[in-house]
Write the C-alpha cells for this entry.
Amino acid sequence: MDADWPVPLVDLSRCDGCGLCVQVCPLGALGMLDGWAVVTRPGECQYTGHCAQVCPQQAIALTFCLMPEPCLEN
C-alpha cells in the first residue's frame, strides 16, 4: 500500500539498524526488516520528522518533488 503523499526515504547504505527511528515514530509507520529501518506502513506516515531528527547516521530524509507555480494571466 502506498501513501498519497511523500514518505521518508531510508538510505540503507547509511542506516546502522539502531532502531531509534522506529522507537520515536508516533504512528508506528517505521519498522525493522532484516536489520534495517524501513517504512512498513506508508499509509500511516504523517512525517512528523522525529525519525530524521533522532537518526545518528542521518539516513532518513523526506523526498519530494518541486512543482513550478503555474503562470497566471492577468
User: Anything to note?
Assistant: The first helix runs from residue 20 to 24. The chain has one domain: 8-62.
